[in-house]
C-alpha cells in the first residue's frame, strides 16, 4: 500500500521525533494478549467463528481459554453445520437429531468425525484412536452396523448353541456405550444379517433382515443332529427334503428405542417402564422355501411400496423372490438366459435393488454344471460373468421370466472361478435428518462398487458402476454398457497360482472407504466354521470413489503436500477417473490378539468404526479410527 502524505511541515522534525517516541512507549507496555481480551464473546461468535474451519477452532481452543469456553456453545457448531464442506456422518431420522435439538457435543462430534476420518484415512498406516469393548453376554455369530455409529445389531447364541436371538445395542456416546435396548428371539441361528434405517408407514425405524435354516419337522433334529453347527454356506442336495429356509424382515421403531434410552437412572423405574411398553420388534414379512436363500435386501420405496427381496438357489436355477411389506403374496422373477450363452446353465452371484429407477442390478455366471475343480481345467469354456439390469414388476403370487433391460460386457474368466461377489450399498432410503443435508449430497449419488474374489487371483478386483445424469430430467441413474469391460480381474502366473490358496479375502463393504481382510485358510477351527483368523486388514483409497463423497475436499497425499499435476491429469475432461495411479492402500494396524478366533466383523465407513467379535468370548471389540 502507498504511504499517506504527512500533515506536518518539512521543518517540524521535533513533532516527528515525539510521535516515534510515543509509539515505541505504547508498544513496549502493550499486553501481548490484548487482541483476545479486547474482543467480546458476541464478536467472536458472530464474526470470528464463521470465518474459521473446524481444524482452526480445535487448534485455537488449546491456546485460548476464552475460545475453549465458547467452543462448548451449540450455536458455534450448528452454524458450521449449515455451511459444512465435508460429508457428515448420517444420523437417525428422528426429531432428536434435528438441527434444533442437537446438543453442542453432538454437533461438534459430527463435524470432528468428518474431518478426522478424511485426514486419518489418507495415511499409509492407520491406527485406532480408541479401543473399547461391549459385553454382549452371549456369543456373537454375525453383526451389522447402522451408519453413523448409533446402533449395532448382532446375531447371538448362548453357550450351548441351542438358544438364538438378535440383539440391538446402542453405541452412541450420549447413551451407554454398548447398552442393550431390544432382543428378538429366533428359533435357529440367524445369518446373512443386514440392518438399515427405513421409514415404514410414516414411522422411522430400523429394518433388520436375516436368513435362518431349520428342520421342517422337529423329529428330524434327533435323527440328523444340530443343524446350527453347519456354516451358512453349507448345502447338500440330499438334505433338501428335511430342511427349510426362512428369510424374514423385522422392524423396530426408533421412537420406542429412544424412549428406553432416555432414562437410565434410577434402574427400577426404567424396568417398570420397559415392562409396560409393547414389544419393540414387528415382523414385516417372511419368505420360506426348501431351497437355500441368501443376500436379503430391503428398501422402503420401490414403486411407492416397501420391498423385501432374497436370492433363492433352487435345483431348476436361481431366481429372485420379492414381497411387498404392506402385505400380499410374493413374486418370483426368473432371469432370461444371456443370448450368447443360452446353452449354458446360468446362475446369480449377487443382486441389489435400485429404488431410484425401480430395477434390480444382477451379477450372473454362465458355466457348465461342474464343480470348481473341473471348471479350472476347462480353460476355453469360461465361466463367463456379466451384470444386468431388470425392471421390478409387482405380480403377487406369480412366477415369470424377465428379459434384461441392459447388460454389461461378458468377462471370460478362463477357468479363474469367482468365489464371491459383493455389491456395495450407495445409501438408498430416507435421508437421515434432511436439515443436515447439503444440495451436492442429494444430487451426486455414490457409485456402486462390485468386488470379486477369484480362485487363482491374489486379492480382490473391483469395478465401479457410476451414476450418470439424464440430460432431459436431470435425474441420476445407473446404466450398463456392453462396450465397457466387466471386472477385468487378472489371474496369477501358473508358477505361483498356489499362493492364492493360502488366504481367503473378505470385503467389508463401503461405497467410498471399503476394507479388505486377508483370512488365513489354515486359521479356522476344524469342524466349526464359526471362527477365523485375520492376517491383515487393508483400506482401499480410490480417488474415483472418494471424489463422489465430497468434491470440495482436496485430496492430499500422505505427506500433506498439495495434489500434483500428474494426479490432476488422472481425471479426464469429463471428470472420469482413470484406474492407473488413483489407487492407494492403507494398512490398518491392530494387535495380533485382536484378530484371532474372530466370529464376526463389521465396518462403518461413515465414522471409521470397526467391530470384531470372538468365538470364545462374549465381548465385542470396538475400534474407532476417527
TrEMBL record:
It comes from Polyporus arcularius HHB13444. Residues 555-566 have a biased composition (Acidic residues). This is F-box domain-containing protein. Residues 555-578 are annotated as: Disordered. InterPro entries: F-box-like_dom_sf. It comes from the Eukaryota.
Amino acid at each position: 500500500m502507498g504511504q499517506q502524505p504527512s500533515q506536518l511541515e518539512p521543518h517540524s522534525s521535533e513533532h516527528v521525533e515525539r510521535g516515534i517516541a510515543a509509539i515505541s512507549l505504547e508498544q513496549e507496555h502493550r499486553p501481548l494478549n490484548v487482541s483476545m481480551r479486547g474482543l467480546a464473546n458476541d464478536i467472536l461468535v458472530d464474526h470470528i467463528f464463521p470465518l474459521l474451519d473446524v481444524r482452526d477452532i480445535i487448534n485455537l481452543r488449546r491456546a485460548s481459554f476464552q475460545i475453549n469456553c465458547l467452543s462448548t456453545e451449540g450455536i458455534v457448531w450448528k452454524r458450521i453445520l449449515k455451511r459444512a464442506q465435508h460429508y457428515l456422518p448420517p444420523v437417525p431420522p428422528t426429531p432428536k437429531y434435528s438441527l434444533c435439538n442437537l446438543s453442542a457435543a453432538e454437533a461438534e462430534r459430527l463435524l470432528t468425525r468428518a474431518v478426522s476420518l478424511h485426514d486419518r484415512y489418507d495415511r499409509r498406516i492407520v491406527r485406532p484412536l480408541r479401543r473399547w469393548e461391549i459385553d454382549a453376554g452371549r456369543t456373537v455369530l454375525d453383526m451389522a452396523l447402522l451408519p453413523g455409529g448409533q446402533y449395532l445389531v448382532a446375531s447371538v447364541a448362548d453357550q450351548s448353541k441351542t438358544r438364538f436371538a438378535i440383539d440391538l445395542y446402542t453405541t452412541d456416546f450420549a447413551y451407554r456405550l454398548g447398552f442393550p435396548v431390544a432382543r428378538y428371539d429366533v428359533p435357529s441361528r440367524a445369518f446373512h444379517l443386514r440392518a438399515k434405517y427405513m421409514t415404514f408407514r410414516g414411522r422411522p425405524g430400523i429394518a433388520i433382515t436375516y436368513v435362518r435354516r431349520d428342520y421342517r419337522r422337529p423329529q428330524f433334529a434327533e435323527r440328523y443332529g444340530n443343524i446350527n453347527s453347519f456354516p451358512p454356506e453349507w448345502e447338500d442336495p440330499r438334505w433338501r427334503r428335511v430342511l427349510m429356509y426362512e428369510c424374514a424382515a423385522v422392524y423396530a421403531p426408533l421412537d420406542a428405542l429412544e424412549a428406553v434410552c432416555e432414562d437410565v437412572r434410577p434402574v427400577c423405574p426404567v424396568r417398570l417402564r420397559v415392562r409396560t411398553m409393547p414389544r419393540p420388534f414387528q415382523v414385516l414379512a417372511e419368505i420360506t422355501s426348501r431351497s437355500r436363500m441368501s443376500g436379503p435386501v430391503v428398501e422402503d420405496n420401490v414403486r411407492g411400496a416397501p420391498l423385501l427381496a432374497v436370492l433363492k438357489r433352487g435345483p431348476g436355477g436361481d431366481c429372485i423372490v420379492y414381497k411387498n411389506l404392506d402385505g400380499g403374496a410374493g413374486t418370483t422373477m426368473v432371469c432370461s438366459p444371456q443370448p450368447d450363452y443360452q446353452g449354458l446353465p446360468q446362475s446369480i452371484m449377487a443382486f441389489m435393488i435400485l429404488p431410484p429407477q425401480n430395477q434390480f442390478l444382477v451379477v450372473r455366471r454362465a458355466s457348465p454344471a461342474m464343480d470348481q475343480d473341473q471348471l479350472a481345467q476347462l480353460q476355453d469354456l469360461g465361466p463367463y460373468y456379466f451384470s444386468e439390469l431388470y425392471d421390478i414388476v409387482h405380480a403377487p403370487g406369480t412366477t415369470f421370466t424377465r428379459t434384461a433391460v441392459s447388460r454389461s460386457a461378458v468377462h471370460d474368466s478362463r477357468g479363474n472361478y469367482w468365489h464371491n461377489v459383493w455389491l456395495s450399498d450407495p445409501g438408498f432410503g430416507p435421508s437421515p435428518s434432511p436439515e443436515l443435508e447439503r444440495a451436492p449430497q442429494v444430487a451426486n449419488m455414490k457409485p456402486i462398487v462390485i468386488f470379486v474374489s477369484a480362485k487363482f487371483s491374489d486379492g480382490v478386483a473391483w469395478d465401479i458402476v457410476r451414476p450418470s445424469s439424464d440430460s432431459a430430467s436431470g435425474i441420476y441413474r445407473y446404466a450398463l454398457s456392453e462396450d465397457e469391460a466387466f471386472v477385468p480381474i487378472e489371474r496369477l502366473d501358473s508358477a505361483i497360482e498356489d499362493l492364492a490358496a493360502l488366504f481367503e479375502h473378505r470385503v467389508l463393504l463401503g461405497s467410498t472407504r471399503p476394507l479388505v481382510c486377508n483370512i488365513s485358510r489354515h486359521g479356522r477351527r476344524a469342524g466349526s466354521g464359526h471362527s477365523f483368523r485375520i492376517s491383515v486388514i487393508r483400506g482401499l483409497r480410490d480417488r474415483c470413489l472418494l471424489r463422489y463423497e465430497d468434491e470440495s475436499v482436496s485430496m492430499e497425499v500422505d505427506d500433506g503436500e498439495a495434489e500434483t499435476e500428474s494426479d490432476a491429469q488422472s481425471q479426464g475432461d469429463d471428470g472420469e477417473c482413470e484406474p492407473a495411479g488413483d489407487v492407494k492402500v492403507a494398512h490398518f494396524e491392530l494387535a495380533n490378539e485382536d484378530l484371532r478366533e474372530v466370529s464376526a466383523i463389521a465396518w462403518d465407513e461413515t465414522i471409521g468404526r470397526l467391530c470384531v467379535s470372538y468365538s470364545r468370548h462374549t465381548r465385542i471389540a470396538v475400534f474407532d479410527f476417527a
